[in-house]
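== Folding the chain ==

***
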Amino acid sequence: MTCINRRDLGLLVLRVGTGAVLAAHGSQKLAGWFGGGGIEGTTAAMEAMGFDPPKHSAMAAGLGETGGGILLALGLATPAAGAAAAGTMAGAVAVHAPAGFFATAGGYEYPAFLGFTAAAIGVTGAGRYSLDHATGHVLDRPWVVALAFAGSALAAAAVVGRRAKGQAAGEGEPTDENA
């Protein structure tokens, strides 16, 4: 008789919960489910937030959240899933950072928590109750962890940096509100 491993069971609960939240949040962006704006609404929001190009940014955010969330929940390609979700959340943190930390004031508390949780799962691994385990961890190797997180960090830095540069360049230009 096999004993249930509490650590692996805890990872399963954490993976499925975090993955479901991310997938639901991303499906708002991609498909308009759960009251979301769909790709058109998300594209308009990305443009208003200063992401360029806005449609590519909307697709990337939606896919990072939905795809990363589904893969985390399944425990498949866990390092890549955690890195994708964490990188996507870095962009969300950059948007909310001016409002401070707490979500009650519009701050970055929520996306930071999701990003750190996804990153921790990606680094730790999915545990025994996962598709990674069932497939012999072919997509969960140390080099995958390093490559996935390095790639995600570089992509997030480029996207957030480009947004910041665009916002800094546009500070002196008139907008509809002050034109």
About this structure: The CA atoms of residues 1 and 153 lie 43 Å apart.
